[in-house]
Structure prediction request, 369 residues.
Amino acid sequence: MYILFHSWSVNPRDRRFLFDVAVNIATYIPLGMSGWLAIRRFTSPLLAMLSPVVFGALLSGTLEMVQLFTPHRVCSAVDLVTNTLGASAGVLAGFAFTRITDIPLAGPGFRLRDRSAVALLFCWVSFLLFPLFPDLRLYVWRAKFAAFIHAPPISPVPILLNAAEWFAVGRLLFAAVARSPFGWLTALLLLVPVEFGIVNHSPLPADVEGAVLAVLLFRWFGRGPSSDRLAGITLLLGLTLSGLAPFHFAGSPTAFLWIPFGGFLSGQWQDAVSTLLGKLFQYGGSIWLLHRGGLSIRRATVLVAVVLAGIEVLQTRIPGHVAEVTDPLLALLLGFAFHVPGAGPRVSAIMSPPPRSAMPVLRKPPARE
Prediction:
C-alpha cells in the first residue's frame, strides 16, 4: 500500500500519459453506471452513489498492487485516481440515464417504457462517441477544422439523412418517457462539436445543419399523430439516397459479396464497430418508426430489408461502393429481435388515465321499498 500511494512519477506533458488517463476513465465508466443502476433499488441514494465509486477504487487498487508482482507492469497511483474518476463519471451517467428514461425504482411502471427505444438511443450515442478515446493532437484538430471549413456548405443528401436521424432520436426520447424530449434533443446538439475531439470522427457542416433542422422540426411537428410514419419514410429515403450517391452508374457490375459481415471483419475494428452501431440505429430506427406509424413488425422489417437489398444490388454498378448481403440480413435480425415478446417497440408508450367525461358514472342503486 505504501508503494502504491507513493507512485506518482508521471510527466503531464507526455501525450501517452494523457491517452492513458482517458483510457482509465473510460474503462471504469460502465462499472460505475451498472453499479448505480443495480444498487439504487435497494439502498439510499447517497449509498447507491458511493458504493460503485468505493468498489471501483478497491478493484483498481487491488489490480495496481497485483502489478507489483507482474513483469513489465508498473504500479501507479495515477491509474488508481483516474479509475476512481471513471467510476464516479459512470455513476453520474447512470443518474442522467434514469432522469432521461424516468425509470421508477420498483413497480409495474417499468413495463410502460419502450425498451427498444432505449436500446436504439444507446446505439446512436455510442455511434457518435465511439471509441470514446480523445484525440489530443493539435495538428489533427487543425486538419478536422480545415476539412469542416472547406467542405461544401450545402449537401442535400447528408442533410436529409442527418435530419431524419435526429428527428428519430426525438421520437425515441418521447417513447422512452424522457422528461422534456425537446429539451434533451436540444442538449444533445453538444455531441456534434464533441466529435471533433474523438478519434476517427470528423464532423461536417451537413451534420450540424441536419441536426439543427431536425430540432426545429421536432419542436413544431414532433408530437403529431403522423410524425412516426413520416419520420420512418424520411429515414428510409435518406438511407436510399445515401446508398445510391453519387448516382453515377458504371457499365459493368462489380461482384456481390455473399459472406455476411465480411466487410466488418476485414476492416479495422474501431471503424467496424462504429459503422455497425450506426447501422443498428439506422435500420432499427426505420423499423421502429414504421411500426409505430401503423405497420406490423413483420411488414416493417420486410420493407426495410427489401429496400436495403435493392440498394445493395444497385451498388454493384456504382463506383466506390461494396455490395454485400450484410445490410438486409442485419435488418432481418433486428426485426427478429423486435419480434421477441416484450422486447419490441410499443405503439403506445405512455399510458394516461381516461378523461373524466369518459369514466363511467357510478350511481347509487335505488332503495328497496
Summary: The mean pLDDT is 82. The two ends are 89 Å apart (CA to CA).
